[in-house]
Amino acid sequence: MRKAFNLAVAAILVFVISDRAFMHAQAGEPASITCAKGAELVKSDALGKGYPEIMSTAQSENFLSNCLVTGRANVGDLIARN
Questions:
Q1: φ, ψ for residue 59 (rounded to 5)?
Q2: Strands 32-34 and 72-75
Q3: What's the CA gap between 40 and 14, in Å, rounded?
Q4: CA proximity to 80, closest of 66, 67, 65, 62
Q5: Which residues of 23-37 are buried (b: 16+ CB within 10 A; e: fewer)?
Q6: Hey, which of 12, 14, 43, 49 would disulfide with 60, CB 3.0 to 4.6 Å?
Q7: Cα Rg for the chain, rounded, in angstroms?
């Protein structure tokens, strides 16, 4: 049982490390923007769709928080990175 647990932990570590390496390799792509710029795009998109200022700001802050915690988020076909 202990051996299975150790293998599971090792597999999770390999996944997380490879995911981070892949993300950093893609960071230089032209479709990559910062989390702050992505939050601005989310807010302007929400305002363009007719949402009030307060709701647009809330969506923008939610996007920024999610992007900073996970390290990346999508805005349409753009990828926002931390």
A1: -65, -40
A2: unpaired
A3: 34
A4: 67
A5: beeeeeeeebbebee
A6: 43
A7: 17
DSSP assigned state of 74: E
Global pTM value: 0.66
Question: Mean pLDDT of all residues in the chain?
Answer: 86
| 37-63 tens-digit pLDDT | 999 999 999 999 999 999 999 999 999
Alpha carbons 57 and 74: distance in angstroms, whole number: 17
User: For residues 74 and 65, what is the distance between their CA atoms, to the nearest angstrom?
Assistant: 13
Amino acid at 70: T
Give me the amino acid identity at 58.
Answer: A
Q: Maximum Cα–Cα distance for the chain, whole Å?
A: 56
Place of tokens 């996007």: 63
